[in-house]
Write a structure and sequence with these properties.
CATH superfamily of the largest domain: Metal-dependent hydrolases
Low-confidence stretches: none
Number of strands: 17
Radius of gyration: 20 Å
Number of domains: 2
CATH architecture of the largest domain: Alpha-Beta Barrel
Bound molecules: zinc ion
Number of helices: 13
Length: 389
């Protein structure tokens, strides 16, 4: 059994409130010892036990690996032209998803797998050590199963999103499509998924349709999460809370009853500021949620249409600059918040027994993630103790 000490940590973010005042549980001049892929010891360098090997953080800040709890990585093609048109004044609608559906259906398995691999590697380079991956660009039984089976090779956090949009061949027959999703498609996809998700919004699925799909998924052992209230106010957030969803994602258009429902629940509000950036839309009101006591996560929503970024650091910078989160809140939401949104206790935290997922920054503080936007500050990344960068 070989142990490895990460030394020279100028500032360590543990997210362990038992460690220090404040949500980040910060320790200065720290050491972390890793054994068998897990954290074996955490504390001040002066008290560190001996270890077989050493890695020097060079005085930089070390934090838990980012947990990107919302990403759509199974797709082919890109929508750069749509983005350019949008920046020239064309408004965003959920309809653009159909472009990606057509490209994804036409793509061979190898192309889709290579696309996922490329984005997961890009994320790892940026410090993301856990990613959730959704289906939702296949929208036939065979194509949704294929997407989830491919995603499973990269993460155990896979989400069945057959109810992403109504595919063109079901235009005008939304209830027939919902019956397919909650029936044969779910039966075939459930073995490859941990989660079930629905895009409950204007132009997508209504509350009754969302409930049908989510309850059917729950009956097959999948846990619910929701795309809700991105494009307009609506029933999605409260439906998610009622069904005990781990997370409701987007939360851009909320009424007071939505905030109150979230505040009294274990459902996380996952904010995806890359989507507002890329669709030039108003950002969610993070302060209102935080001040009400809601647990907030940040994720990329990485997808080819409305948010083609894989960078959690970019999302942190947006959250701080545009959503009035403090740097500490944004870092917590991108790590421990994402872990909460996936109901995981073993990631997003630097604590004995947790998975050894660590990001070493070329910067003395996590504040630099927002203070130096667009700059690659990641010096090295460890996932389960293995160096990815
Ligand atoms: Zn999404």
């Amino acid at each position: 059994m070989t142990s490895c000490a990460v030394t020279g940590i100028g500032l360590l973010v543990t997210n362990d409130p038992a460690r220090a005042d404040g949500p980040l549980g910060e320790i200065t001049n720290a050491t972390v010892v890793v054994e068998r892929g897990a954290i074996a010891w955490v504390g001040p360098a002066a008290a560190a036990p001996p270890a077989d090997l050493g890695v020097d953080a060079g005085g930089g800040c070390v934090l838990p690996g980012f947990v990107d709890s919302h990403a759509h990585l199974v797709f082919a093609g890109d929508r750069a032209a749509e983005f350019a048109a949008r920046m020239a004044g064309t408004p965003y609608s959920a309809g653009g998803i159909a472009t990606t559906v057509a490209a994804t259906r036409a793509a061979p398995d190898e192309l889709l797998a290579a696309g996922i691999a490329r984005l997961v590697a890009e994320m790892a380079c940026g410090g993301t050590t856990t990613v959730e991956i959704k289906s939702g660009y296949g929208l036939t039984v065979a194509d949704e199963v294929r997407g989830l089976a491919l995603a499973r090779a990269f993460t155990k956090e896979t989400t069945f999103l057959g109810a992403h949009v109504v595919p063109p061949e079901y235009a005008g027959r939304t209830d027939d499509y919902v019956a397919l999703v909650a029936g044969d498609m779910l039966d075939a996809c459930a073995p490859y998924a941990r989660w079930v998700d629905v895009f409950c919004d204007r132009g997508a699925f209504d509350a009754d349709q969302a409930r049908t799909v989510l309850e059917a998924g729950m009956a097959q052992g999948l846990a619910p999460r929701l795309h809700a209230n991105q494009l307009a106010p609506g029933p999605g957030v409260r439906l998610g809370v009622e069904l005990g969803a781990a997370s409701v994602d987007h939360c851009t258009h909320l009424v007071d009853a939505d905030v109150a429902a979230l505040a009294g629940s274990a459902t996380v509000a996952t904010l995806l500021p890359g989507a507002e950036f890329s669709t030039r839309s108003p950002y969610p009101d993070a302060r209102r949620l935080l001040d009400a006591g809601v647990t907030v996560a940040l994720a990329t929503d990485c997808n080819p249409g409305s948010s083609y970024t894989s960078s959690m650091a970019f999302c942190i910078a947006l959250a701080v600059r545009e959503m009035r989160m403090t740097p500490a809140e944004a870092v917590w939401s991108a790590t421990a918040g994402g872990a909460a949104a996936l109901r995981r206790g073993d990631i997003g935290v630097v604590r004995v027994g947790a998975r050894a997922d660590l990001v070493v920054l070329r910067a003395p503080s996590y504040v630099h993630l927002a203070y130096r936007p667009g700059v690659d500050l990641v010096a090295s990344v460890f996932r389960a103790g293995r160096q990815l960068r």
